[in-house]
Specification:
The protein is an alpha/beta fold. It has seven helices and seven strands. It has a seven-stranded mixed sheet, sandwiched between helices. Helix 5 (90-101) packs parallel to helix 6. The radius of gyration is 15 Å and the shape is globular. The two termini are 26 Å apart.
């Protein structure tokens, strides 16, 4: 789904909240496309920062930026065209979501992973709408064998 959104949106700036496979996928996509894209990955725990850096380096994909949330949250980055929020625990995601929603460009898309979690989905829907955004379910396209799914914000509400 992230690569497909990349092809459709052609984002100049991507925020990858939560490192791991998404960091690999997004950087692989950016490397394979002719569109110039900056990838910024942010992790909740510094241990993952080192692991992500080592893995990306071993794959020849150490392009873009890597930060911990504590350091990144103190900055005022330029807005992002695509944000993938899959960082830390569900409680941590809920805690950071209001700030994350302010980090997008006016037409930016925010993808929220793991919205199948009952404790997270209602909060994510509420915060998205409170921010004046439309909440769209991507369950149809992202639901896996374990029942996990993602959602995305497509546009501002009128």
């Amino acid at each position: 789904m992230l690569c497909a959104l990349g092809e459709i949106l052609k984002p100049g700036r991507v925020l990858d909240l939560g490192s791991g496979f998404s960091s690999y996928v997004l950087r692989s996509w950016a490397k394979a496309t002719s569109h110039e894209t900056t990838i910024v990955s942010v992790v909740a725990v510094s241990l993952w920062l080192d692991r992500t850096k080592q893995f990306l380096e071993s794959q020849g994909l150490l392009n873009g930026e890597l930060h911990t949330w504590d350091n990144f949250a103190l900055t005022t980055p330029k807005p992002f065209d695509l944000i993938f929020h899959d960082m830390g625990s569900i409680a941590f995601r809920a805690q950071t979501l209001p700030k994350v929603l302010t980090m997008r460009t006016p037409n930016g898309v925010v993808v929220l992973d793991d919205v199948h979690k009952r404790a997270y989905r209602p909060f994510a829907m509420s915060e998205t709408r409170r921010a004046g955004l439309e909440y769209l379910s991507a369950t149809r396209w992202t639901k896996d064998a374990f029942g996990r799914a993602a959602a995305r914000r497509a546009r501002s509400t009128p």
